[in-house]
Amino acid sequence: MTTLLAIGTQKGLFLATSDDDRRTWQVGPAHFSGTAIYTVGVDTSGPRPRLLAAVDNSHFGPSIAVSDDLGETWEEPDSAPVAFPDGAGASVERIWQIVPGAEPGVIYAGSQPSALFRSTDGGRSFELVRGLWDHPHRPEWGAGFGGQAVHTILPHPTDPASLLVAMSTGGVYRSSDGGESWAPANKGIKAYFMPDPWPEFGQCVHRVARDAADPTRLYAQNHHGVYRSSDGGDSWQSIAETLPSDFGFPMVAHPSRPGVIWNFPLTADSKRHPTELRCRVFRSTDAGDKWEEQSSGLPGGPYYPVVLRDAMCTDDAGTAGVYFGTRAGEVFASGDEGESWTTVVAHLPDVLSVRAVSI
């Protein structure tokens, strides 16, 4: 088995491969050199994985490039495939997330400003999901420190009509009718920075992951707060008690084992560095009731680099590989579910996203 790791950075996309052991890696040269790659989607519904890279060119703006040969060649459209229609009163500033839907050929993209787009041709063209864009709450959605964006998209694995998104700052929203209508799903998630700390919407959710074995179980990393929902988002409960901090950005779920999740805690708002200045991943095997440190093979302290929300992932192997990249340009891999770590590459530009797939 070969594992492909797509590493999006501030100055290009790097593709790394490992044969069998997921400990030794070959890293290729930069694709789209000089442009920011904020996210990469991988569509495995076809005969070979399709890579979709969100290319953020400072001159031409954001676009999506597609590769059906694992990055050997790329198809770049003449005009941006993710764009607001005339009369929407907005323009796409950045593409934050690209995710395949439950049906072949369906791809979702989340943008800044907060909007959702849907493709039915494998990511070559997109249409605005009007139900979310026209939601009456939208004028009150704020901008997080990184901007106002839909950064999490979770299609239901078996129900194409069921979809969840999360945004900064607006919170979690769900649709059960294919995106025609949306309802907030934030009960129990605290917004400590608001006059009413328990609002219907307005939470600064950093990331949401879905349990692979139980689609109704969700996990969220909030701006202060780590939560679990056991009812598809109807309600949320804190699972931060045994973590060293409730602040951070990524939240990752095992591809097949129920209740197994990973997190990278940071200190509070103004400092934003790893807790105790140590590079440490934390894993829970019981849906967040207890967390354990996983740092074997990771750098010692003092350690300052941050892991961003899209810069941590798993692959799709039975014994999951876990991967994360830092703003110092380092990427680390574990082929044994976090028990031990090796360095994939160092000295890259800021790592914005990582995505792994078996090929």
TrEMBL record:
GO biological process, one term: xyloglucan metabolic process
InterPro entries to which the protein is assigned, alphabetical: WD40/YVTN_repeat-like_dom_sf, Xyloglucanase_GH74
Superkingdom as given in the UniProt entry: Bacteria
PANTHER family for this protein: EXO-ALPHA-SIALIDASE, XYLOGLUCANASE (EUROFUNG)
Protein name in the entry: BNR/Asp-box repeat-containing protein
Organism of origin: Paractinoplanes atraurantiacus
